Predict the structure of Glycoside hydrolase family 79 protein.
Amino acid sequence: MKQLTPYGLLCLFYCHFLGVFATDLVVITPSERPPTSASKAVVNNFVSLSIAIHFFQDYARTGSQGESPNTFSRNLLSSLKESTSIAPEIRIGGTSADRTTYIPSQNTTISTVTGGNGIPLNVTLNQQWFERSFDQANFPDGTKFIFDLPLVRNDSLALNNTILGAQWALEAIGKDRLDAFEIGNEEDLYVSQQVVPANWTVADYAARWKIFSTAVTEQVLIPYGLDTTQKWFQGLVFAGLGANKAWTTETAFNANVDSNNSLKSVSLHKYVSFFVLAFSYRIGC
């Protein structure tokens, strides 16, 4: 993957500045070996996107049932790729993804029950939603995806539902375009949302997450031929960015969330006004 180091970014800016305000050609030759105090290289797809699952079809396709590719969205994504030399990564998730049920017999691609805050109380998808939303015609070549699977449900059919979603997603996305599966969304808010008992802890989250990730690995990743020596999961997805000291990267790892060594990255959310910043950290980087 091509990368821009901080030195490279500075040189690009400096050369642009000189090109606008000076007439003489100036050649800058940065050192091939940056000082030890320099930051790590910035990956070119650092400008990437996270889209709530109940909006994704509208961004990727046009028509009430997603009949055609959304060329406007594709053109915007292609412009980003042209600017950075690599397609932006797209994460499909959110609270709505955590509340999604996959229904083979559903006639419409997507159906939602809207809650008071605009976030659906429930989302149902059929397989055609996946086939149309992840059609390669919707995206520039090289686009990779992180797909969020449900964790919040704890009924007898919850695990089967998540496995079905993983199967449909992998069939539509394909091995070459899948970067990772997420399981769950902002689990540190489950207690306040009253979807788990009041005494639910990060250890309970870690235990449930491992059950679900193991099932997805054994029943989806392995049968579909993915190399399980690689890591295929992004985890944590906490909302507080460390504000809740009981729910941090450290406490989750102390609770052995990665005892099966399957996490490639963790994602922490920070809410600024009405925007959400998602910080993803690669494990071992």
Summary: Helices lie at 6-21, 53-60, 71-84, 95-98, 127-133, 158-173, 202-221, 249-254. The mean pLDDT is 89. The chain has eight helices and 14 strands. The longest helix spans residues 202-221.
